[in-house]
Amino acid sequence: MLQNKYSSDKIIGIDPGKSGGICLIHNNEIRASKCPDTTQGMSDLFSEMVLDSPTTSFKVVIEKVWARPTDGRVSVFTFAQNYGRWEGIIASHGVEAEYVIPVTWMKHFSVPRGLRKQERKNHIKHLSKELLFKHQYVPRMWKGVPTLATADAIMIAKYGVDNVT
Description:
6-stranded mixed β-sheet
């Protein structure tokens, strides 16, 4: 693992998909949540995570993704809406997000290439559970464990802790 390059109080990782999530790593705690169904819910959750923190005391890392030719039109539109909502919410707090493409953060955690989607999702969920126990983070999430909805966000936030400058 790389050494921490960023000394922020809070790192927020966002998996911007509709079935994605958001994660806050602060001190020895990890708080993760599934993406709320509404823009207001997303905004409220983000605001709650940053509270009254000055913008210099937290960093946001969001997964940089795009549509693939095999994606259906409706799913692409829904995904793009959610992605834009997160960008607007982040910007409304006066923060400039750091973007990371999936292959970069997955490579950082040695996620094997060539896995089918469900295998990859399960592998990342397993990694996020290991992260909690190896680093002795206190989980502040649904039932205290990562889910398929929160696992990517947790690992994106940890990538931010390890790499964002």
